[in-house]
Design a protein that fits this description.
The complex is a heterotrimer of chains A (93), B (87) and C (104). Chain A is mainly α and 93 residues long. Chain A has one domain. Chain A is built from 3 helices and no strands. In chain B, helix 1 runs antiparallel to helix 2 and helix 2 packs antiparallel against helix 3. Helices cover 80% and strands 0% of the residues of chain B. Chain B contains 3 helices and no strands. Chain B has one domain. Chain B has 87 residues and is mainly alpha-helical. With 104 residues, chain C is mainly α. Chain C contains 3 helices and no strands. In chain C, helix 1 runs antiparallel to helix 2. Classes of the chains: A mainly alpha (93), B mainly alpha (87), C mainly alpha (104). At the A-C interface, helix 3 of A face loops of C.
Chain lengths: 93, 87, 104
């Protein structure tokens, strides 16, 4: 295969998976799973930026979007799950 | 030779997309985290191959950040709540 | 000579990609969490190491090689620590996130 054809295939796979990931993250019913998918989505988006010859944006996306944001959202999802659980306990007894 | 690097990068991207299935279906949270870790490592390899094939040396730094990101998210995931042990 | 080096580099990179494919297959097909973890660490360390070795052979340049080696060491350390943490939490079932209701 020639180089343009390979690049086109690369872009097609990248885009299709990016869209699928975004949909899966948004439609996921459970917060922790959604956060995990969001981390994967950030990783993928950063690959897209890298492919677009924008390493600086890819850096920012990987560090802030997926790394810091993912860690903070994991903590938030955990806290939300705990709050929901204690609410249930109060309602039950 | 750049064609070959791109082809291998495409293969790695495909294995990453297949590995995503485990993130989506993974029965327990540790499964999802493991799959995310493999995703990060394959992402590093893909970035390295892309940096050589496209001639963008700065992508190496992005790969370094990916490695850091994996460590941070695993630490955030396996963290225990402070004070949970004493109770 | 250059030709030989190119062939060695291509071989290393292809072998590394093979490790990644094997790791992904293991992640999908193996029955329980710990065997999946085992498959994953092989792909992590050896696959990435072989690809980096191939890239170093492809463009032999001291600074580039040093940076790649640094990256590899970082991935090995964080990968080993992370896998150990995940396995320990899953084994003892005492992580907050592990089985949802694992805390008391």
């Amino acid at each position: 295969m020639s180089q343009p054809a390979l690049l086109l295939a690369f872009d097609a796979v990248l885009l299709a998976t990016l869209l699928a990931l975004a949909l899966a993250a948004v439609l996921s019913p459970e917060p922790r799973r959604a956060v995990m998918l969001f981390i994967a989505f950030g990783l993928w988006l950063s690959l897209v930026w890298a492919r677009l010859h924008a390493p600086d944006v890819a850096l920012a996306e990987a560090a802030i979007g997926a790394g810091l944001g993912g860690a903070l959202m994991l903590a938030a999802a955990r806290r939300a799950a705990r709050a929901a659980r204690s609410n249930d306990d109060e309602a039950a007894g | 030779m750049p064609e070959m690097l791109l082809a291998i990068a495409l293969v790695l991207l495909l294995t990453m997309s297949v590995g995503l299935v485990r993130v989506v279906i993974g029965p327990t949270p540790p499964d999802r985290m493991m799959a995310a870790q493999l995703l990060g490592t394959s992402g590093i390899a893909t970035l390295l191959l892309l940096s050589q094939a496209l001639g963008v040396p700065a992508l190496l730094d992005v790969a370094l950040i990916f490695a850091l990101l994996a460590a941070v998210s695993v630490a955030a995931f396996t963290r225990r709540r402070a004070g949970a042990d004493q109770a | 000579m250059d030709h030989l080096l190119d062939i060695a580099a291509a071989l290393c990179i292809a072998l590394g990609a093979g490790f990644f494919i094997a790791g992904t297959a293991g992640l999908l097909r193996l029955p329980d969490l710990f065997s999946r973890l085992h498959a994953l660490t092989k792909a992590d360390n050896l696959g990435l190491g072989l690809i980096m070795l191939g890239l170093i052979l492809y463009a032999p340049e001291p600074f580039y090689a040093a940076k790649l080696l640094l990256l590899w060491v970082l991935v090995m350390v964080s990968g080993a620590t992370g896998s150990h943490l995940i396995a320990k939490r899953a084994l003892r079932g005492d992580g907050e996130d592990m089985h949802g209701e694992g805390m008391q």
